[in-house]
Amino acid sequence: MKALCWQGVGKLSVERVDDPTILNDSDAVIRVTASSVCGSDLHLINGYLPTMREGDIIGHEFMGEVVAIGPGVTRLREGQRVVVGSVIGCGTCWFCRRGEWSLCDNSNPNSALAEQMWGYAPAGVFGYSHAAGGFAGSHAEFVRVPFADHGCFAVPDHLDDLTAVYASDAVPTGWMAADLCEIVDGDVVAIWGAGGVGQMAARAAQLMGAERVILIDRYVDRLKTAEDQLGVRTLDYERVDVLDGLREITSGRGPDRCIEAVGMEAHGAGVAATYDKVKHALRMETDRPTAVREAIQACRKGGTVSIIGGFGGLVDKFPLGSVMNKGLTLRSGQQHSQRYVPIVLDRMSRGDIDPGYLSTHPLPLDDAPQGYEIFEKKLDGCLRVVFQP
Amino acid sequence: MNAGVKLAAGAVAGVAIAAGVRAARARGGHNGHRAGKGRAHLRGVTVNRPPEEVYAFWRDLPRLARAVQQVVNVEEIGGNRSRWVLLGPAGRKIEFTAETIIDEPGKVLAWRSIDSPVSHEGRVEFNPAPGNRGTELRVGLTYKPPMRAAGAAMAWLAGEEPDQLLRNALRRVKQLLEAGEVVLVEGQPSGRGPVKERITEAVVQRVAVGGRS
User: Are B213 and B170 in contact (CB under 8 A)?
Assistant: First the structure.
């Protein structure tokens, strides 16, 4: 089959590789009909996450048709149209049973690697480096899905592929970002990052009762799209001072909930941003926390900061003083796919969430390397590139 | 060598030793601790199943053997004894007999080795985990390395640290009991040829040494 492989920092190529097979009894093999890029892939491609090996197949947000099931699979049948959560969970460990699927004890075969990095190993993720399990990714014609009974969800017929694919990652991650905030009616929610996840977090916040949602970024076309599609307010941080802007929008209180949907390659302006960029380039700082710092600084006293942008290592100059003295709650995590995918599929099915507009660039798999270039540089109004092998 | 080079070489060696000591300390004393003339390792894992079930798994030797990847064969030979055959480095077989000396169902098991190249004892406790989390499975392994650093067994012990063996086995026991299987990633497709794939697997294994569970 064809698959998109990482070949070194900044290098991607489409290769002919073996088809996946059933390796464990609870596996299924899916024929991929849509696989989306994600901002977190860029950290991987650009060498900011260690433990990638040349030849790794990437991609983690996908859907397709079940073509094979292992003897332990009971809830799926061949031919079924399913969307697959990006995070893998066994369903039987203490964490999975509590609904914290991205903390699964048993779905990362390389858990010793992750333990060295983070203390304990979270769940495996498709196509996301060997520290996350070394699972072959979804930018391919076929993917093998472990614990398939838990990870695959039937897609309602009336949702097309270019809409339903986002139930795999962008929509549930956005939903979780908002869910972590415990939004109550009347809350003002500020979201850093107007990419696919940030926009889906904005929609989720609205559905959860936020009075006002403000989206922050510098890409004018993305901010405009969000205003048109979601009716959110926006702030362009290259034109206005974000902290001031948020102070005024909230009449001096600050946003109640702040969501960071940017991740480790944050861009910023000013001295702190330059500091981060230099240290990052020299690999003296593994992650750039520009947006996180701002979210912490901007949050009202006693508020919540929900961090779901991708981070891997250590950051400098973390505003712990602001966190402590304002009594903030920080919440974070990779998305609990198996918990949130059914919730968002239900909402998508009823038309409450409609992510179809994110698919600005559907492309064949053969064009994947160029697709990532368009996505990374945000050319041509690109929000998401979706491969249809 | 002239004095300057000797000094430099000494300095380099000194730095290397210091780095090695720091690295060893950073690895958290994974050589176990002294126990009389031997070494002891104590590791635990929390399994989300009741103690009786974990005990039953441990008593079912073929099932237990699946958790220790190096086991080639195990069989009960009567009189509370079992015969184990393990695969060491370079395909050498290591055999020993284990005798159960304590057996409190659902609570404790203890064994000692008979005619093993490296004599060892083990004790397993099946304690209820706090907060309804299932079982705290705690395994203590004591062994006496042979006086001479020679022989297949010692090489095996040196190559595949007992602590790492124990950690890996416990992780697999947990996965087998909870999820029913150990998730495999070998055999997946990639853009690598067969040689590079084997190298990658070896590299990942090597880098993975040093986890703490």
Answer: yes
Whether A137 shows a pLDDT value over 60: the answer reads yes
B170 has pLDDT over 50: yes
* Chain A residues lying within 8 Å of B204, measured CB to CB: 51, 53, 110, 113, 130, 134
Distance between B56 CA and the closest CA of chain A, angstroms: 18
Query: Which chain B residue lies closest to A117 (C-alpha atoms)?
Result: B211
pLDDT digits (tens, 9 = 90+) for A343-363: 999 999 999 999 999 999 999
Cα distances from B20 to residues A140, A141, B29, B160, in angstroms, run: 43, 47, 13, 19
pLDDT reported for residue A345:
98
Give the residue among A324, A367, A381, A375 at the shortest CA–CA distance from A2: A367
Decide if A19 and B189 are in contact by the 8 Å CB cutoff. yes
For residue A117, the chain B residues in CB contact (below 8 A) are none
Instruction: Output the CA torsion A99→A36→A289→B27 (10° steps).
Output: 60
Alpha-carbon gap, residue A355 to A349, rounded angstroms? 11
Give the C-alpha separation, A107 to A124, whole Å. Answer: 5
Contact A118, A132 (CB under 8 A): no
Contact B213 A23 (CB under 8 A): no
Which of B46, B136, B161, B190 has the most A C-beta neighbours within 10 Å, making it the best mutation to test the interface with A?
A: B190
- Give the nearest chain B residue to A94 (CA atoms): B48
Expressed in percent and rounded to 5, the helix, strand and coil fractions of chain A are 35, 20, 45
The pTM (predicted TM-score) of the whole model is 0.90
**Secondary structure string (H, E, C) spanning A52-113:** CCCCCECCCEEEEEEEEECCCCCCCCCCCEEEECCEECCCCCHHHHCCCHHHCCCCCCCHHH
In order of A53, B200, B208, the CA distances from B204 in angstroms are 9, 6, 6
- Residues from chain A that touch B182, judged by Cβ atoms under 8 A, are 109
Confidence of residue B13 (pLDDT cuts 50, 70, 90): very low
H/E stretch holding A32: strand A28-36
Contact B48 A93 (CB under 8 A): yes
Supply A285's token pair. 């700082």
Tell me the one-letter amino acid at A33: T
CB A334 within 8 A of CB A122: yes
- For an interface test with B, the pick among A58, A93, A117, A150 (most B C-beta atoms closer than 10 Å) comes out as A93
Overall residue count recorded for chain A in this entry: 389
Contact status, residue A45 vs residue A56, Cβ threshold 8 Å: no
Average pLDDT value for chain B: 80
**Given A115, A120, A136, which is nearest B189 (Cβ)?**
A136
